[in-house]
Structure prediction request, 176 residues.
Amino acid sequence: MSPRNSLESIISTDKIEQRVAELAREVERDYSGRELVVVSVLGGSVIFLADLVRKINLPMRIDTVSVSSYTGKAVAPRGLKVLKTFSEDVRGKHVLLIDDIIDTGGTLAAVMEEVRAMEPVSLKTCVFLSKKKERNIDVVPDYVGFEVEDLFVVGYGLDYDGMYRNLPYVAVLHVT
Ligand code: IMP
Ligand code: MG
Prediction:
């Protein structure tokens, strides 16, 4: 870490574990008796994905997509492009889309459009974090781990310039 950046922990490892278990129970209840295709947006959601799916006791396939969005730094997105298309055929399937955080909603909206074009039976979204803010894009995630203030956060998969994904907790990054 740059000696002038500092981390302020806002969600502990214990709280994360507890909440992820709760989300898994909700998903199990809502999809009871069904088979799922979980689609994870790389790379921010990989840690959340890994913890969540291992707590969901339902038949599922897992697929990943990547989207070019942020340039890696804490700046506004330059425009979104879905880079890897799906390898699972989601036609006629129940799709649960997973991402690390919803900020403007642009990423989720772009991936949802791609998924919808493949005609799944249902499409829901699950984000680990949701930033408390007004969104111009009309996307409301179906499952939210935690709401956070509109600050730049890292850890538990979320990065700043590729770093901090391995932190086992969520922190606000103060860049100085
Ligand atoms: P959106 O398209 O503006 O909703 O942004 C979603 C994507 O931007 C997420 O998948 C993250 O990769 C990234 N992002 C947004 N806010 C943060 C943050 O506070 N920390 C790290 N990544 C973020
Ligand atoms: Mg991301």
